[in-house]
Structure formats: structure tokens, C-alpha cells
Amino acid sequence: MAEQLKMTGIKKVFPGVVALDDVDFRLLPGEIHALMGENGAGKSTLIKVLTGVYDIDGGDIELAGQKVRFTGPLQAQQAGISTVYQEVNLCPNLSVAENIFIGREPRKFGRIQWSEMRKRAQVSLARLDLDIDVSAQLDSYSLAIQQMVAIARATDVGTTKVLILDEPTSSLDASEVEQLFTIMRRLRDEGVAILFVSHFLDQVYEIADRMTVLRNGRLIGEYRTAELPQMQLVSKMIGKELEALEQIEEHAREATVTERGTPIVDARELGRTGAIAPFDLTIHAGEVVGLAGLLGSGRTELARLLFGADRPDHGALLIDGKPHTVKAPREAMAEGIAFSSENRRTEGIIGELTVRENMILAMQAARGWTRPIPRRKQDELVDRYVKALQIRPADPERLVRDLSGGNQQKVLLARWLITEPRLLIIDEPTRGIDVGAKAEIQRLVAQLADGGMAVLFVSAELEEVLRLSHKIEVLRDRRLVEELENGDDVDADRIMQTIAGGATT
Amino acid sequence: MTVVTTPPTPQRNRSLLGGRRVYRPNTKHIPVLATLALLIVMYSIGVYNYDSFGDTQVFLNIFVDNAFLLVVAVGMTFVILTGGIDLSVGAVIALTTTVAATLLTAGWPAGVVLPLVLLIGTVLGLGMGAVIHFFKVEPFIATLAGMFLARGLALLINRNSIPITNDFWTQMAQKRFRFDDGVFISLNVVIAAVVVLIAALVLAWTRFGRNVYAIGGNADSALLMGLPVGRTRIAVYTLSGFCASLGGVLYSFYTSSGYSLHGQGLELDAIAAVVIGGVLLTGGSGYVLGTVLGVLVLGLIQTIITFQGDLNSWWTRIVVGILLFAFIVLQRLVTRKAK
Ligand SMILES: Nc1ncnc2c1ncn2[C@@H]1O[C@H](COP(=O)(O)OP(=O)(O)OP(=O)(O)O)[C@@H](O)[C@H]1O
Ligand SMILES: [Mg+2]
């Protein structure tokens, strides 16, 4: 079959990094093709080179047999390439409807037809099984919904020949992923060539027909999904066999908290109207508490209350047994509570600073700005976490902006780990992180808990929660509905039932 | 072994989705409403304290005296909505009036001079926009250079104030639209009103207008969304240049003179009006209507000070300064609360 898209000998060099080196890639019409690779392998760069976000340093691009070279996303879009870039790239100040249609609004005599546009936006979101107020401003919605809006924007164009989705599922829950897959399958059957990037291997195996594996900016190979077992794929991605992953499997479940004492945090009837119903929760030193629940079930909201990012309007919070009103994150930090946000783009990472500066930020803030951390100490700490989290490129002086999405996530995590908090709240720490590093992070968390740190672990991945937590809090509809001691009788199905509301024991 | 697993699909739960939206009041209108309230309070104070302050003509004179500023501020609104700034507008007014006066004195027909001076401002704006876009120069720097350039050119042409005696110009300056009860507005006001109306329509109903907001919201995203970011940015500065030179023409109607020192510090007045009108300095939020209110606030302060009689006119500046602070703080609070 003739390729819809063919890239040959693609080369892209950033100062100090060869992001892509002689990469070939082809996309057939009517296929879903997964682009696989570790964090920093060059997936997003390949996409951005294709759509003209970056200039290309070598190689050719052919679209339907025609040689092309786009000068920007606009030109790529006009040629029939629709793209959802990694991280939500929309305008927070515009309405949902506008975000879907801006640039191709329905017009009459040059005048935008607002009501028509809203109607169409509603239809286009309905296809993703989403029913929201499309005239509301985009940033009034959660990250997941924003992601769905971005997907709606890309999939709504009738003239699309190539659809590119760079980690579209990282902030979606299972049912939303299913909706997306339904649409992807339909578009594929209509002959659209689809490029899909994800670190969720199950998703890739469910949806992709073929895949291309990149490693360190080089092409490793192109395979049919059916012919490449998962284990082989992973070892192709990371370039070695992975026993490492298996080590932590049983770790957390066995470790039990021996000695209890006063809990670090003791929430009594703590709540905030509209965010989360009053709940009780205790977290002891050395304990890993997992928060499970669908997106929007109040997971993040609960975590934010404990950290003082939002103010409770109900109940009390005891820290070390003493009543405490954490009014601001700064006060929580002074009590040794750290919070790594799920939204790294807007709340965490500062792109213009280097990896080192980003990492020591929280620690420096905790010490106060009058007592700078000696440079030697900084380098030592930063080095340790760059290694522990396998941040690549392993160069502390690089601007964080220039790191791949997954590596940015690791830097953010390191920022909080460095402060050696007594309670670490991590919201979706492994989102967008490749399998190898994911295992590393899980192991690190388990290790830190063994060392006495308490961890509140928020994740959409039940397996991950199950693997690490001593105790699991299940949330539904902004309410803490059940607390489960993690044991042999607890498994994903059991939790799923509680989440879905049909809990029977 | 399963490396990564996503949770199995639960029953679709619609109420969950509905509940996911965080409630938030429409914070976009708050700054504009605040300005409106301020305006009403100030006006009431004026009417209460001074005789004949409540005359319709007094109110209309605010428009008559500030029509040129309004036109300039409308251009500035576009620029600030994209998150930029244009410091050159005051100097462009000086250049426009100087060139117009010089050429008219030399006997050029008004029909040639008028389009020519409008073109000068527009081209200057285009140039600054191009520099900002292609060379990635900060708008602050590029328009600062534009400001020096325009002011310098004006001074080079003529250091002195040049009276304008051209028939057409005088006619335009004296043209009055009278209403039944004897009150009137000048031609300048009508022109400014038309500019405001067109600007409001463009911002709300055209692709260009929406792109302006998108760029102010997040320029990087706008680029990835395939919006013509470069073109829009350049257009916005071109537009501001045009508005500045049109403002200059109105100013030369208003003062019947051309002078290289006209419009000193006017860029700051324009920026102040836009900000007091509730346009976010970081871009992406605000309305032309707000700008109109902002200009009215500035004009009203001046009127009050004139009526008071014994106050130094520098009080205008002081009050404007305080108001600016207040409004920037208000914007902070509103946007923070929204977060
Ligand atoms: N703008 C940039 N400037 C400099 N280096 C960059 C830039 N963008 C990416 N890189 C580097 O290029 C390499 C490839 O990054 P890329 O974002 O393509 O990775 P990725 O495969 O998408 O990873 P992830 O799974 O984490 O998203 C990385 O080493 C990254 O640090
Ligand atoms: Mg990427």
C-alpha cells in the first residue's frame, strides 16, 4: 500500500543533543500506528519536526507521495495533518467552543456565528460522550476535560488525512480512553492514518496495528503489534532486559507498618463545599496511602486540602496530634508536608530555569532565601536524583523547557523528594513516564516509606496504587466512600466495584 | 507480568462528569463593572459638589476633549490584548501633526496630506510589528525605539509649533453636531465613536479579533493550534500605528496646530485608560467598552479638577496613579480568586 506519510533520514539537533538521528518513519492510510520509546527518545520531536514546529536538520518528508516541508502548524493543518500535542495546548482564556473551532469558526459574511459554533461544539463533544457547558471558559474545567477538548478539536476536521495524538490518554480515565478509541477506530476505518503515542502498553496493544520504536533518537525498528510480544517491546525500548521492573512487585504489600504512634496528619471531618465532602483520614510515618477514584472524584481536591492549597470550610486538621490550620502551602511545607502537583505545566515546572534550579527550588524556599544552599551541596543532591530518576539528558545545567515531557515530570518529583518531607503528597507522579522510570519511581517511593516517610499517593492507575499502598482510600463523587487495608483480599476488581458504586463485600 | 494496566472500565456515570466542573462566576466582567461603578460615583460626586456639573454639555465635553485619546486607546487595547505594549503612540501623534502642518503650510492639498499622514503611522506600526515578530524583540523595546524614531523625526522636521490654517482642517475642527436641546459634539467624537464601534465588532465577531484574544491567552498554544500568530501580531501593531496617526489627525483638528512636542506621555495615558478599563496587562481578557470607560474616567478626573479650580493639574496624574494601582490590584485579586 502507498504510504500516506513517509519520513526518511530525519535528523534534528538541539544544542548539545541529537534528538533525532537518521530516523525513518512511515504511516499507512487506515492504520493506527504507535510511536514507542522511553522519555526523551524523540517521539515528540519527530512529531514537531513533521508539523513544522521545529526546523528540520536533514531528511525528507512526503505526504501522499508529494514532498513537503511545513513552515508551521498552520501549514501542516492546511495540508490535512491534525495534531494533539503532548500537554494540553489550548487557550485557557477562551470558551470551550472557541477552543475547538478557533481558526475555522463557522462564518457568514466574515462574521462568526456563535450559536452555530456552540451547537457544533456540543455535537463534537457528544461524540466523546462529554456533555458540558461549551460557553464556559476552558480553564474552569479539569485537565482531563481540557484534554478531551483538545482531542475534539483535532478529530472534528473533516479533511483530516493524518491524525497525530501525542500522549492524549495520560490524563484520561478508562472510560474516556474507550471513547477516544472508538473515535480512533472509526476514523481509521474511514482511511485516516493515525499516529498514537502512549506510555500505557495495554492501550497500545489494544489499539495499534503497527508500531515504530525509537531509542535515544535512533530508529530501532518497525513491527506489527501482533508479532511483537509486550516483553520484547519493552526491552527494545529500554535496550536491555528488565528484571528491575519485577523487583518491586510484591514489595509494598509485605511491608507493614509496625509501629504507629501519633499520625503525622489526622483529618477529622475535613471538607470543603463543592470540592470534597467531609472525610476522616490518618496518615502515619512510614505509611503509603493510596487514593483511588475516577478523575473528578475529588482525589486532587482532597490532597490540596491537606497541603493548604485550598482552605477547608469544615472540620479540623491535626498535625502531630495538634490542631492546625494550614492556610497556605508555605505553612504546610514548614510542617514537612510536600505536594507534587499533577499539573506540571501551570503549577510546577519553571521552564526558564535549569534542571538544578528547578530541583532545589522547594528546598531553598523551605530554608528561606537568606540562607542559600552551598553550590557543592546542590550539585551533590541534584546529581543523586538525576541518577535515581534517570533524568535524561543527565545534565543539571540544561533548561527544563528543553527536556522531554516525561523528564520534566521527573524533575518536578525530584524537587519535592530533595526536601525530604515527612509527608509527601504526589498527584499522578508517573503520568507520561516510561515503563522503566515508572518502576524506578515506584521503588523510590517504597524505599522512602521504609525510611519513615509518609506518602499520599494519588494515581489513576489502580495497579500502581495497589502495588505501593498499605491502605487505600476510595473516592467517588467527591466523597471518601471506603478505606481498605491493602491485603490479599484486595485487588483491582474489588476497588473498581467500590468506585463504580456497587460495593458488596 | 503486567507492566502497566489501566483500570477496567466502570459503569459510565454521567453525574460524575457533570460534577467535575468547578463552579466559577464569570470573572471577566468584574473589572469593567468596577470601572463603571467608579465612573458613576465620580460623576455623582461632581454633580453634588459643583454647580452645573450635571449639564449634559459638560459630560459631552469629556468626549470632545478626549476623542483623540479614545482612538489611540482603542489601538492600544488590541496590542495589550495580545499581551504586548505600544510605547510609540504619543510620538506618532507628534509626528503626524508635525508632518500634516508642515505639508499643509507648504500648500499641499488636504486630500493628499490626510491619507499620507495616516499611512506614515500605519507603516511605522507595521515596521515595529515586523521587528517584534521576525526578530523576536520585546514589544517594549521595539516600540520604545519606534517612539524615539517618531519623536526624533518630528523634531527634525520642525522644532516649533506650526499653526494650521488649511480650510478643510478648519472646517473639520469647527464642525459640530447639535442636538435638540442645544448640546453638541464635535466631528472628532463621531469619528472616535465609529472607531470604537468597528473595534468592538472586530474583536467579538471576526477571526482576527478572536486570534488576538487567543494570542493573549497563550501564544505558544495559539501557534500549535495553527493560528496565524505572526500575521496577527504584526496586524495588531499596524492597527495601533494607524489608530495613533488617526488620533494625531484628530488632535490636529482639536488644536489646529502641529507640534513635535504634542502628545508627550500620551502613551501612558492610553495604557492607563486601557488598564483602568479592565483589560488584563498580560493579555487575553478585556473589552473595548472597558477602554471607553477608562478614557471617561481619565476625562472625568480632569473635569473635576477644572471645576475645583484651585487644584494643580498635576493632581490628575496623582489620581490616575492611585487608580492604576487600585485596578491592577483588583485584577490580581479577581484572577487569583478565579484560580
Ligand atoms: N526545544 C528543545 N531544546 C533542546 N532540547 C530539546 C528540545 N526539545 C526536546 N529536546 C531534547 O530532545 C530529546 C527528545 O525529546 P522528546 O520531547 O522528543 O522526547 P519524547 O520521546 O517525546 O519523550 P516523552 O515520553 O518524555 O514525552 C530529549 O533529550 C530532549 O531533552
Ligand atoms: Mg513527548
TrEMBL record, chain A:
Q: Where are the transmembrane segments?
A: none
Indicate whether Transport appears among the record's keywords.
yes
Task: Give the residues annotated as coiled coil.
Answer: none
Identify one Pfam family in the record: ABC_tran
The molecular function terms in GO held by this entry are: ATP binding
Classification via InterPro entries:
AAA+_ATPase, ABC_carbohydrate_import_ATPase, ABC_transporter-like_ATP-bd, ABC_transporter-like_CS, P-loop_NTPase
State if ATP-binding is listed as a keyword. yes
Supply the alphabetized keyword list: ATP-binding, Nucleotide-binding, Repeat, Transport
In this chain the ABC transporter domain maps to 5-241, 252-502
Query: Which PANTHER family does this UniProt record tie to the protein?
Result: CARBOHYDRATE TRANSPORT ATP-BINDING PROTEIN MG119-RELATED (PTHR43790), GALACTOFURANOSE TRANSPORTER ATP-BINDING PROTEIN YTFR (PTHR43790:SF9)
Q: What is this protein called?
A: Sugar ABC transporter ATP-binding protein
Q: Report the source organism.
A: Paractinoplanes pyxinae
From TrEMBL, chain B:
Query: How is the protein disposed in the membrane?
Result: Multi-pass membrane protein
Q: Name the InterPro entries on file.
A: ABC_transp_permease
Q: Give the subcellular location.
A: Cell membrane
Which Pfam families does the UniProt record give? BPD_transp_2
Keywords recorded for this protein, A-Z: Cell membrane, Membrane, Transmembrane, Transmembrane helix
Q: Which PANTHER family match?
A: ABC TRANSPORTER PERMEASE PROTEIN YPHD-RELATED-RELATED (PTHR32196), INNER MEMBRANE ABC TRANSPORTER PERMEASE PROTEIN YJFF (PTHR32196:SF63)
Against NCBIfam families, the record matches this protein to: PRK11618.1
What is the name of this protein? Sugar ABC transporter permease YjfF
What is the species listed in this Swiss-Prot or TrEMBL entry?
Paractinoplanes pyxinae
